[in-house]
Amino acid sequence: MTNILLIMFAAILTENFIFSKFYGICPFVGVSDKPSTALGMGMAVCFVMTVSNAVTYLIYTYLLLPFDLIYLRTIAFILVIASLVQFIEMFLRRYIPQLYSALGIYLPLITTNCAVLGAALLSVEEGYNFIEGTIFGFAAALGFTLAIVIFAGVRERMKYADPPKCFRGLGILLIAACLVAMAFSGFSGISFE
């Protein structure tokens, strides 16, 4: 149980995919205009990352390892992720069209979101079992969602700011992202021993 809590704490805060591994920067900058859109993207990534970690563990353990097909790991994982994203896209188009249109091009980009693939590859590399790998995927997705929603809130506030001309646009975005990342880095000093 302690191991699972440590995995969750690390994936959400200390080793946040966006702020420490720099995975998923494209949707982080592209979808964080409004907190509602960021939350929708985060929920979609949560579903895909959690289920893909579970499925990729099964494929890796029961198909790729026994038949010595480890070199197909990345391709197999991408196929699993692409299938899950297609499922989410069909679901959102039918049942939540507002969120589907708000996410726009970024929804199909979950397929190529390196955070989703990175979570699957890292859980295999770390040697997590099925439960640990699935929880790692969920916690990493929660960390992704937390980061993107917090940054969307920061961007909402920045709409009313008047930065100097040289910082407008991408410049102030990167500075704000750096400050949020520094806040997250404060969690890395916590020790559980």
Structural class: mainly alpha
How far the N terminus sits from the C terminus, by CA atoms, comes to 15 Å
User: What is the strand content?
Assistant: under 5%
What is the H-and-E element order?
HHHHHHHH
Q: Shape from CA axes?
A: globular
- Count of helical regions: 8
Q: Could you characterize what this model shows?
A:
The chain is an all-alpha fold. It has eight helices and no strands. The protein has one domain. Helix content is 70%, strand content 0%. It is globular. The model has no long low-confidence stretch (mean pLDDT 89).
Kindly list the characteristics that best describe this protein.
193 residues; mainly alpha; globular
Mind sketching the topology for me?
Elements: H1 2-14, H2 25-30, H3 35-64, H4 73-95, H5 97-103, H6 114-125, H7 130-158, H8 170-185
Nutshell version of this structure?
With 193 residues, the protein is mostly helical. The chain is built from 8 helices and no strands. Helix content is 70%, strand content 0%.
